[in-house]
Amino acid sequence: MTDLQVFRDETRHWLEEHCPPSMRTPIKTDKDQCWGGRNANYVSDEQKQWMDNMASRGWTAPTWPIEYGGGGLSKAEAKILSEEMNKLKARLPLSSFGIWMIGPALLKFGSEELKLQHLPPIVRGEIRWCQGYSEPNAGSDLAGLQAKAVDMGEHFIANGQKVWTSYGDKADWMFCLLRTDPDAKKQSGISLVLFDMQTPGVTPKPIKLISGSSPFCETFLDDVRVEKNQVVGEINQGWTIAKYLLTHEREMIGGFGLTGAGSQTLGQFAVEALGTEHGRLTDSVLRADVIRWEIDAAAFAVTAERVNDEAKSGQGIGATSAMLKYYGTELNKRRYELMMKLHGNDAMEWEGEASKDGWLPRTWLRTKGNSIEGGTSEVQLNIIAKNILGLG
Amino acid sequence: MALVHNQEHQMLKESAQGFLREFGSITELRKYRDSEEDFSPLLWPQMVEMGWAAILIPESHGGLGFGQVGMGQIVEQSGRMLTASPLLSTAILGASIINLAGSEEQKAQLLPAVASGQLTTALAVDESAHHAPNNIGLAAEKTAVGFRLTGSKRSVVDGHRADLLIVAARSSGSLGDSKGVSLFLVESKAAGVSIEKMSTVDGRSVANISFDGVEVATEALLGDEELGFRVLSKTLDIGNAHLAAELLGICSEAFERTLQYLKERQQFGVSIGSFQALQHRAAHWWSEIELAKSLVLKCFQALDADDIKAPILVSISKAKLCEVADLSTNEAIQMHGGVGMTDEYDIGFFIKRARPVQALFGGYSYHSDRFASMTGY
Fold first, then answer.
1. Full DSSP string of A153-198
2. Which candidate, B78, B113, B331, B107, places its Cα nearest to that of B204?
3. Do A280 and B373 touch (CB under 8 A)?
4. A12, B39, B95, B208: which has the highest count of C-beta atoms within 10 A?
5. Which residues of B touch A271 (CB under 8 A)?
6. Are B7-120 and B122-226 the same fold in CATH?
7. Which residues in chain B touch residue A312, judged by CB atoms under 8 angstroms apart?
8. Cβ B291–A303 below 8 Å, yes or no?
């Protein structure tokens, strides 16, 4: 038996033993997702148990080095872990901007001190992170951000306003872009800094969305003290890290095109909603729309696979994340538009048991943000035109 | 299997590129479009020389057994150069259907002849303006010595120059039944076969063929009597995968030429490619071609692996490529502006070649319907 086969067997046995039964069922609502943090609201003891079990092996961040609390797995081993979790239908033990975003940035750009301070609590789900990027006047033009940190010698004092802070009211720490040199050219005077959300002067305020939920906040910074050792990388070099993180975020959001509505295909959803006659959906116009979507979704899935395989074999152009983000999010929006049409008047229920409190219309409205957050579709098209096609 | 091309495929692509630039280019198309022939008589012998007629034929029958992914590389390049040749009719459709359905004797006799360029073939399926492989009406009546064929076929690619016609006929059942379809090998010079050439929008031609009581021997039957539909269907899948690859070549070339034009053409004192209205359209177009590329490769890999999902992938792939070809050829003309309408510029040839490739063996609507039907709705 090869080492990888041994690893697979061991992993399977361990998962079978340590994944509680309720954590092998599909996620139904947002609450089922485990985010950890100081103020975590676990839906059950088993949810916490599952996170702790996985964290004890560093498997909430499988490929991170062991010295920072990670699993220390190779890419091949991490793939096996994810395959074995899928076979068991095991839930993701921990959803975390720490694992997805600031962690990878710290691993690449952070000092040893920062890595040792921040990475292990992320792996254990003890500290929940949020991102302070956008501002009221800096959206697509992110480098135009104005929130500033003034050098006071020992530390910085930060002032300004951030917006679209995902779960800002629930997070423990923020990674934040601040202007540290007001005289430098736009991109060159920005630093990426870290601070505790409990620092005096930090005030997150939830924003109610058209979907009725408030996953985002505006965050006010009034004379917030930021320690000098909490700057990631060099002072005034934060834009490089920000771009790295944005690419990362694009890839994450782009992937939603495939998984947004669980394992059911749109075709199956349509059959349940409308029924068939002679093997065809009863509404021939909607049928054509569903088919067009399914074909595009299949093409997109195969493309994600190809981009991945090309990256592994050193081929490809590497700058495709903008395309995946653009296409994936537009696909997801189209999917929910069709799901709404397929459910007709039933899709309009906002509150009530039948619709699980308007799950469909609320999710549909939420998808409208997919092509805005993490860089709008138009920004992605700009990136493709300039960086890939060389149009200027 | 990783969704990437290996080194052998890359090499095949490069050699196809080099050869077609020289011998199968748009200059050739311009030269032959007004003549009786569709391409130079020297072209096919050279392609045969390079081994292209043998790629899909097993080594045991004088072929190379190189597979669909490899052949797809050549077809994609020939799509880029708009090259007319018997590649589809003989090296793909003919070789595949004989290999799939032929008796050992038929294979031993015919496949080496195809591989060595001595035999060209044409597949005769459709009888109306729309692809409908179930609707085979051409009658095959049993006689004392074999069969008598009566009926007609339309839009047969290379039907007017092939040595051997491979004809889908009905020996039992009625229009719409998949059972009852039988395949026959018919000499194009056989008595009762009349072939009418129809010139087409792409500067090429196809054949409308009528069979007026054509007598063939029992040995002319290719594969099992009445059970020809399965083989026909599989052959059409292979054909459609390659038509998708040809469309990919057409789309990619039209895109690259247009991108170049956007960078060169100056208006208002700047290159028109600096305008965001055009940048966004170009970026969207590029994204669509990236999706198309992935499907074409996935589809060939599935066919080579004999994956049961191959027919679904073929229909997804052909449908998507039809859609991307509509986008590509229209954007190509629009972004070229007035010169895109002129015969002098090559860009107009891409839309003229794309449409017959899209329609052959089913376009967007046929394949999107087939895909949905195969997946339960």
1. SSEEEEEEEEEEEETTTT-SEEEEEEES-TTS-GGGGEEEEEEETT
2. B78
3. yes
4. B95
5. 376-377
6. no
7. 2
8. yes
CATH architecture for segment(s) B122-226: Beta Barrel (2.40)
Dihedral sign from CA coordinates of A341, A344, A345, A346: negative
- Give CATH for domain B7-120: 1.10.540.10
HEC assignment per residue over B219-238:
HHEECCCCEHHHHHHHHHHH
For CA atoms A47, A52, A54, A59, give the dihedral sign.
positive
A303 touches chain B (CB under 8 A): yes
The strand ranges marked E within B76-204 are 121-124, 139-142, 146-157, 164-170, 181-187, 193-199
**What's the rounded Cα separation, in Å, for the pair A328 and A22?**
31
Domain coordinates in residue numbering, chain B: 7-120, 122-226, 230-374
CA B94 from centroid of its chain's CA atoms = 11
The structure tokens 């699980």 sit at A356
Residue type, A262: G
> Is B148 buried (19+), middle (13-18) or exposed (0-12) by CB count in 10 A?
middle
Q: Which helix (H) or strand (E) holds B336?
A: helix B310-336
DSSP A241-266: HHHHHHHHHHHHHHTHHHHTTTT--H
3-state SS string over A5-49? HHHHHHHHHHHHHHCCHHHHCCCCCHHHCCCCCCCCCCCCHHHHH
Q: Which of residues 282-311 of B touch A (CB under 8 A)?
A: 282-284, 286-287, 290-295, 297-298
User: And the tokens for B146?
Assistant: 């074999």
Q: Confirm if B218 and B146 have CB atoms less than 8 A apart.
A: yes
Contact by Cβ (8 Å): B129, B201 = no
Question: What are B107's two structure tokens?
Answer: 């294979």
Element (H, E) at B212: strand B205-217
pLDDT along chain A (392 residues), means of 10: 92 97 86 92 95 97 96 92 92 94 95 98 98 94 95 96 95 97 93 98 97 93 97 95 84 54 82 96 98 97 89 72 93 96 97 93 95 93 96 92
Q: Which residues contact A143 (CB under 8 A, 6 or more apart)?
A: A186, A187, A190, A239
What's the token pair of residue A365? 């409205």
Domains, in order of start, for chain A: 3-95 (1.10.540), 129-236 (2.40.110.10), 255-388 (1.20.140.10)
Contacting residues of A for B298, CB less than 8 Å apart? 302, 305-306
Of A296, A273, A246, nearest to A102 by C-alpha is A246
| B273 near A CB under 8 A | yes
Tally Cβ neighbours within 10 Å of residue B163. Answer: 16
Q: How many CA atoms lie within 13 A of B160 on its CB side?
A: 15
Cα separation of A178 and A159, whole Å?
9
Complex ipTM > 0.90: yes
Token readout for B13 is 């692509």
Phi, psi for residue A226 in degrees, rounded to 5: -120, 125
CATH 1.20.140.10 fits B230-374, yes or no: yes
